[in-house]
Amino acid sequence: MNDWMGLDPDDKTAILIDGANLYKAAKTLGFDIDYKSLLARARRETRLVRASYYTAMQEDPDGDYSPLRPLVDWLDYNGFNMVTKPARSFIGQDGQRRYRGTTDVELAVDMVLMAPRLDCIVLFTGNGDFRHAIAKAQEAGCRVVCVSTVKSQPPLASDDIRRQADLFVDLTDLEDVIARKGAPRRDTRDLDEEE
Predict the structure, then answer these.
(1) What does each C-alpha distance from 66 to 18, 52, 71, 104, 179 come to in angstroms?
(2) Any bridge partners for residue 84, and if so which?
(3) Which has the closest alpha carbon to 111: 43, 22, 15, 39?
(4) CA angle 15-19-25, nearest 5°?
(5) Which of 16, 24, 32, 171 shows its CA 20 to 30 Å from the CA of 185?
(6) What is the CATH topology of the domain spanning 12-194?
(7) In the chain, where are the structural domains located?
(8) Residue 192 pLDDT grade (very low, low, confident, very high; cuts 50, 70, 90)
């Protein structure tokens, strides 16, 4: 086993990314993810079987452009398996159109179904709701590495997921490899005002 996320060069490995959760963690830490570098490094370190990115997509009835579309298209053309579904729109109490959606069920089902054919799953999320799915993957003989952060206020990785995972890797420990080079580092002090 090597020291990069505990990956073994001979292991059949899948990367599963909870897109909304990873985006929030990276934004909170003040950097953007370089998915090309992440994929290249994973391919060098292990036998990567699949890299999947899960996200809900805004589909505005007025035909407004989804800000996620360029990322989703780029990932789809550059080696990631995309799992998307439409986010539901609703009108909030303030009269503004809002969106709600999650691909948590799709990610959990895929994790449990793939686990018997894999040696390791690298799960990019801090969402404690995945604890049971991680346990089921482990029962199938698959190691699960979770990547999120506890170095934010508040911590974005739940205690449940950190305890259940075979290994927890803080996103800050991967920044040198997976942060987009040349992008200006965000000032995280003003994040609460932007959200």
Answers:
(1) 18, 20, 10, 20, 23
(2) 55
(3) 15
(4) 100
(5) 16
(6) Rossmann fold (3.40.50)
(7) 12-194
(8) very low
